[in-house]
Amino acid sequence: MEFRHPLKIPAVDNGKLKEDDPLIRAIEAKDLETVRFLIETNDKYKPRIQEDPELLITAVSRENVELVELLIHHGANVNAKSQEGPTPLSQAVALNNIEMTRLLISKGADLKNDTESLILAVEWDSKDVVEILLQNGANPNARGQGVEFAIFAKGFERCINKLHRGRTALHLAADWNQEETLRLLLAYGADVDRKTLNGHPAGTPLFIAVSKDRVDIVRVLLESDAVMDAYDFERAADHAATLRRWHILEIFLDFFFNKPEISLESGIYHHPIVKRSILADHPQPSKLRRHLFKAHAAEVKVPTNLKPLINDIAVSYPEEYDACTLEIQPLKTQYIGDSDVTFFQLLVADLNSLAVLARNDSISSGLELAVKEKKFPFYGSILTSQLRKGVARRDLMERGIALSPRLVPDFQLPDLVVERVLQYLSNKDINAFIGACSLRK
């Protein structure tokens, strides 16, 4: 969807030009020939073009590339800021004008110190503009701080709130459910764990995604190493439980199934809402109850403080507990598709091993068939989550390998060596590496 900015370009009235000035009227009318005639026949206009930012910004707002080029040719400053706030670039971005954005960047628009344009591009859901800005050095972690962020936003009051909380482009992409833009920002080094300015624990993109029930965004952020330790997991899981986002809480537990120090050491199962729910016979919370069964049956470390809870629910649901335990044997003996990998090996594989497994099409198709046939009703969602993690890791590794020659063009390492180096990095670090490589032409 294309959005047009709601701002009426203010009349230029700063003591140098008046609203009824012929040059202003010609620019507003997009009358290129008259503008050219006035500049070439009257010397008083050239200093004004060089000194007054409103002229170029007005020309940009009229979306006339030739007119903008003419003013820049005669000395208009592409980085000048108007009294009202916008720069020529932020004006072009707010209009979602790709051609104008490219022109201003080619003429020297400063992206490194620009704190608004990228956020505006995300606010307008302009993925193409976001990519152009990132490719040319925009800071993916810039916070909206200028007046124009509030002026151009879809809702003035809402945007003032965002401005107060100091959100970055990644926060907005999570809020607006823009998965492709979010992936793009992460690929250029956006900090997946960046908090808002007030440092509130719920100020990360992940907490926003949980609050808005953005399931796909939650998965992408997890795959990019959001929520790395037990403390952060506890806060995020607690947030999901408080909002009764059971399906998101299940995603957390499935994602960290083979990291018991994160998924089970935390006290989430003693959260009042969770504890009451897993002991009750409700469809969604019952999945959390089964998670404890699955962890215990698969011999994932279960903390001592959770064993009484497992015993309680095992007594209350003996058939469910036994069925979960019986599922382990076929997991260990059945191979996935035509591969020589068992389902259990996929279940317990580490991240780099998952990336290798994700390259095997037989594993992907075999797992899809097994899940479709509900061969593993208890462990199917975890197996799917494991393969998703592997695919995300594989794609990151492949992109990192492909872009690595840009970092040191005169010294190219073999792909196998680069892959081995990348295996020591987290997904978050590989994203940062890719971002650094992407900025090198």
Describe it for me?
The structure is a single chain. This protein is an all-alpha fold and 441 residues long. Among the domains are: 1-129, Alpha Horseshoe (Serine Threonine Protein Phosphatase 5, Tetratricopeptide repeat), CATH 1.25.40.20; 330-438, no CATH class. Helix content is 60%, strand content 0%. It has helices at residues 22-28, 32-41, 45-51, 53-61, 65-73, 88-94, 98-106, 117-123, 127-135, 147-152, 156-165, 169-175, 179-187, 205-211, 215-223, 230-242, 246-255, 260-263, 272-278, 285-297, 307-316, 318-326, 328-333, 343-348, 351-357, 361-372, 380-403, 415-422, 427-438. α14 (205-211) runs antiparallel to α15 (215-223), α20 crosses α22 and α21 (307-316) packs across α22 (318-326). The radius of gyration is 27 Å and the shape is elongated. The two termini are 31 Å apart. The model is unreliable at 1-18 and 146-162 (pLDDT under 50).
